[in-house]
Amino acid sequence: MTRSTATSLRGGARTDGGYAAGSLTVHRSPAEIAPVTRALRSAGRKIALVPTMGALHEGHRELIRHARRAPGAVVPVVSIFVNPLQFGAGEDLARYPRPLEADLEACREERVELVFLPGVGDMYPDGADTTVTPGALGDRLEGAVRPGHFAGVLTVVTKLFHIVAPDFAFFGEKDYQQLILVKKMVRDLDFPVSVVGVPTVREPDGLALSSRNVYLSPEDRPRAATLQRALAAGAAVSARGPQAVLDAAREALATEPALQVEYLELTDPDLGPEPQQGRARLLVAARLGGTRLIDNVPVQL
Ligand code: PAF
Prior knowledge:
There is one protein chain. The strands form 2 sheets. A 7-stranded mixed beta sheet has the order 1-2-5-4-3-6-7, with helices on both faces. Strands 8-9-10 form a 3-stranded antiparallel beta sheet. It has helices at residues 30-42, 58-68, 100-109, 120-123, 142-145, 149-164, 176-188, 220-224, 226-236, 242-254; strands at 7-8, 25-27, 46-52, 74-80, 114-116, 168-172, 194-198, 259-267, 279-288, 291-300. It is α/β, with parallel strands linked by helices. α9 (226-236) runs antiparallel to α10. A hairpin with a 2-residue loop joins β9 and β10. Pfam families: Pantoate_ligase (PF02569). It catalyses: (R)-pantoate + beta-alanine + ATP = (R)-pantothenate + AMP + diphosphate + H(+).
């Protein structure tokens, strides 16, 4: 595969200058993919973007399936880019898994026809001096533990939205604060895109799928499911009010001494103050060995 050249990975006639129905085409630069998605839109197709950092798992596949089911004559586009801007000093940028061939195979299996696979120089040719600021919500929860993380996320998502010009964009509820911040940015800054959240996909023991689960040691892997058990314990007593939810979740987390809990919070569905009744969200983050885990569930108080 050559750099900066659109590459068709299976047979099939090229149309629209870089889109071949029935085959996977990989575009490596903004200048390559932007005219392709715009030509498709002019031809009446809808573009459904699934932004990823690769290391695709069943959760990403579920995003792609939702993208395919969006209304209209949809063309799903998967972007794969490990965005350095959203990693803090000492985080896992260098060791983040990058199984490119397996990712492209997953895209083929999900019948994706367009993949956007830029390099860092393609996305940030002049560095990243201009960024998008998330506002106060970006400094809470994940943002308090990972300063600057959401500015990095919103900056790259903004660029992806401008480059790919999607009608729809799909994000997992696993990264719930990211989903809420992207929705807020789209509202606040008038992006012409519908942001769709997709429920978390879980392992049989309840562990939320994440590309970072590969970091878990064999001993820690079963312990990691404690997070989901704690959230479920909280949700199970939701009729007894917010304090009971938090107490039950905290008690379940305490059963696993190896977990270092960073936060456990009950918020409204937009991550605002804890409600006394109605819809709420229970969120947790913890460290287990060298791995950070996050999870969340909806709760009806
Ligand atoms: O959720 C992710 O994988 C990333 O944060 C995203 C949205 C692709 C931006 O880099």
